[in-house]
Amino acid sequence: MFKDPGLKLETLNRARDPHIRTIRIDQGTWGVVLAPDSGDTYVLLRVMPHGKAIDWAIKQKASINTVTRAVEIRDNAMLDELTPAYERIAPAAEQRLFAKVSDGDLAALGIDETTRRQARALTDAEQLEVVAPYFPQDQREVLEYLAAGFSVEEVWRDVVSVSLAQGGAERRPSGPRALPLGCRYPRREVPAAARHPAG
């Protein structure tokens, strides 16, 4: 979308990302937009009631996926809260969820340094289920496939190359792509300690 003099663009004082702003669409309805470093082209991220728009916007951090080049949004506030708690209770590195996947392979699949650190703290698929909704969509799908036992090559073929062909997550229908039937990691009751790590 292009900046219009009639749109009231607001900078958020408590925002974790200075590029995320809000605009008034009509009475009570606001959009959350990603502002460029320069120019007048904005990316519309969400349309919500005013209070909810601000609450959501101040927690988010935007980035560009290094492989798919998609605009990514992550809930930094929640990830900053969960990651240290999981790091404190995590077992030895070789016993963690992604121990068998190298940093180089994760990077090749579009996992950035921030997400890699957060993923490295996870012990099992149940913890991934807790934090996955707060990861950027493309990176979340890569981690879910890896946790389900897919190889790096299969994840590239089934997730990353598909995203590249479709122009990134911002051009795909919203919502995660489902894993092949029977291949999703088990859905079990998440223990209270995993939902609310001590800390």
Structural class determined from secondary elements? alpha+beta
Helix-residue proportion: 25-40%
Strand order across the largest sheet = 1-2-3-4
Strand content: 15-25%
List keywords for this structure.
199 residues; alpha+beta; 2 domains; four-stranded antiparallel beta sheet; two-stranded antiparallel ribbon; 8 helices; 6 strands; 17% strand; disordered C terminus
Can you offer a commentary on this structure?
The protein has eight helices and six strands. It is α+β, with helices and mostly antiparallel strands. The protein folds into two domains: 8-58, no CATH class; 64-195, no CATH class. The strands form two sheets. Strands 1-2-3-4 form a four-stranded antiparallel β-sheet, with helices on one face. A two-stranded antiparallel sheet has the order 5-6. A hairpin with an 8-residue loop joins strand 1 (8-11) and strand 2 (20-26). Helix 6 (137-147) packs antiparallel against helix 7. The longest helix is centred in the middle third of the chain and has 14 residues, at 76-89. It is globular. The model is unreliable at 169-199 (pLDDT under 50).
Structure at a glance:
The chain is α+β, with helices and mostly antiparallel strands and about 200 residues long. The chain contains 8 helices and 6 strands.
